Amino acid sequence: DAGITQSPRHKVTETGTPVTLRCHQTENHRYMYWYRQDPGHGLRLIHYSYGVKDTDKGEVSDGYSVSRSKTEDFLLTLESATSSQTSVYFCAISGALSGPPDTQYFGPGTRLTVL
Amino acid sequence: QKEVEQNSGPLSVPEGAIASLNCTYSDRGSQSFFWYRQYSGKSPELIMSIYSNGDKEDGRFTAQLNKASQYVSLLIRDSQPSDSATYLCAVRADNYGQNFVFGPGTRLSVLP
Fold this sequence. Notes:
Chain A is built from no helices and eleven strands. With 115 residues, chain A is mostly beta strands. Chain A is globular and about 45 Å long. Chain B is mainly β and 112 residues long. Classes of the chains: A mainly beta (115), B mainly beta (112). The interface between A and B is medium-sized, with 26 and 22 residues.
């Protein structure tokens, strides 16, 4: 997984509770991404970061916020979880100093269930 | 709305045959194209990237890009049961941004 970890790997929570997912990389890649994957929709970009404290919205950003205070960590927060946010969440990184800069490497994923 | 389309499958081929996976995209300005493989319950892993019109070969895999037709394909020669997975096509939609758009994936089944 190219030095990418996600935590937790599984989480069950209730509607209305806040949830934070963490992505940690040891590769010193510049860019970090959060995707969600749902049947029939493939991977959809939620937010991405192009540097510390620099983030931008993706296709499905409503209901999600992100923060990146260190190069290696990218946090995804659901302020008030809803059942529609039940999904598998993948973190990805890109921007290696060697090799194609836009090659993405994915973390192992977090399965989130909102009851 | 930038879109990437793939036939969801399942595409079934016998072992040893050529599997052909297709992808079309809507943003004519797209410049970077990727094929990822995803086994059930696992994360996507990059197979190939392609940036120029024509063919690019890597082992049993060949990616083909036709920007005029907004079409990218992946051929898998001598298909093996271990190739059974979902194949995701991805396009980088902005030349100077990091907005990647993925297709829904095509499920490939290679029958022994």
